[in-house]
Every structure is written in C-alpha cells, then in structure tokens.
Amino acid sequence: MDCNCGRVHFTSASGHGDYEQGELEQLQAKAAQSPEKYIEHTQYDYVEAILICGERVILGCQCRQDELIAALIETHANALVEYLKRYYAVMAEMLKRATENTKANLETLATAQTHTRLI
User: Fold this and answer.
1) Burial 12-43 (b: 16+ CB within 10 A, else e)
2) What is the pLDDT of residues 4-15, one digit of tens each?
3) What is the pLDDT of residue 119?
4) Residues of the chain with pLDDT under 70
5) Which residues does 52 contact at the CB level (< 8 Å), separation at least 6?
6) Helices (H) and strands (E) in the chain, counts
C-alpha cells in the first residue's frame, strides 16, 4: 500500500493480504534493494491507512504524516469542535428547509391533481 510520501508498505505476516502470485516475493526483493522505500511489516497481517483530502497516509510510516495530522487535530481540537457544531447546525437548517419545501411541493402537487380530476 502506497503512502503519500512515496513509501510502499506491505505485510508478510501470517494471514497477510491477498497478493497475486509472485507479488509478495517481488515486494520483498524490492525491499531488499531499497529498504527505505519498500517497508515490509512482518508482525502485522495488515497495513493501516487513512485518507486525508484524498491522499493515503500509512499509520506508523517513517514520514510521520499521521503524527503531524494527529498533533494538528489535538492542537486545534476546540476550534474544530466549534467549527463542526456550526457546520452541522447549518446542515440541519438546510435539511429542515428542504423538508419543508418538499412538503409544500407535495401539497401543491396533490392540490393540482385534485383540481385536474374535477375538470
């Protein structure tokens, strides 16, 4: 699995991921030649990642992008909570308006159908 920094992480532990025939051996050969770029995980049966703005960050990668993101969140936790409260309040209001508009439109449609049948 590729990290945003360019390193490739893979696991060879028991019960490891689904590799095509020969793929694991190729990764291990690349890791032997470029251990700073190809990172073999032997004690875990999976590599964990998160997506940040569409970019994959491998948890525990030497680039430490995961730690930087965690520190950013921890440093700005209160501001992020306040932002999310405001964001979801706006979303709730928009949903309420959309629901009210939908109800009004359905009532108008029902009225129009009733008048059409009367004609």
Assistant:
1) beeebeeeeeeebeebeeebeeeeeebbbbee
2) 999 999 999 877
3) 60
4) 17, 115, 118-119
5) 4, 65, 69
6) 3, 4
Please answer whether residues 94 and 102 qualify as being in contact, where contact means their C-beta atoms are separated by less than 8 angstroms.
no
Burial class (CB in 10 A: 0-12, 13-18, 19+), 11: buried
Domain ranges of the chain: 8-75, 78-119
Q: How far apart are alpha carbons 12 and 52 in whole angstroms?
A: 26
pTM score above 0.70:
no
Q: Are 83 and 93 in contact (CB under 8 A)?
A: no
Contacts of 46 (CB under 8 A, 6+ apart): 11, 16, 17
